[in-house]
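forwarding from the other thread:

> can someone predict this with magnesium ion?

sure thing
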Amino acid sequence: MTKEALLNQTDLFLLDLDGTVYLDETPIGSAAETLQALRVRGKQLVFLTNNSSKTEEEYRAKLIRIGLWGEGDRVYTSGMATISYLGRHFAGKRVYLVGTEALKREFSAAGIVLDEEDPDLCVLAYDVQLTFAKIKKLNAFLRAGKPFFATHPDDVCPTKDVPMPDVGSFLAMFERSSGRKPDLIIGKPFTPMGEELASFTGTPQAKMCMIGDRMHTDIRFAANNGMKSVLVLSGETTRETMKNFPDRPDLVLETINEIL
Ligand SMILES: [Mg+2]
């Protein structure tokens, strides 16, 4: 597909964060100008992340601080998608949430009742405040057969030093201890996140284009949800390693800045 055709067919760009618009605290090249040019062309921008340890506010603050935020932009996290999904399909159910205090506040603010004693279902998020007491409790609920949801599947969370264990690593531990896999994973690359995004933005998935650096989450997400996709080589994927995956992005660019 040509760049111009892709731009013409896209109303809304979903922007992965680390490896796509910034690396740690530094915007990738002239990303600020590129995003502004997309806004000027009338494109909606949604910064999309699987990281459910942080809130929308925290991401917005960072994007403002490093100069990537613009008028009309939005942030969407797998935590937000999980809240929306539960509201739509499991309204009124009591939830045992393994997550950060910030995420617990977001669940409560959305009217979800958190219950550590006798929940109807369990949710595992990226809990950077994880303790053995929480592990023990979730393991017991899983062994008791409670429905089990995870916010996203990533094995590791990139940092500027060593990649940190993320939800996928936690899931491997719970599978070993309880024999359970999640009944559903919400975030990229799966479809619940795509459905919740369509509802959140009012834009059909066919008018969305995902820009990201990971084949197995970003590009798979677009393929699973009927979106267009752009792979950028500014993060974890190279032209060589992309061949190890089944999906073919509509465009492959060195960085997001080549989109215009
Ligand atoms: Mg990334």
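Residues 78-89 form the longest helix (12 residues). thats all i got for now
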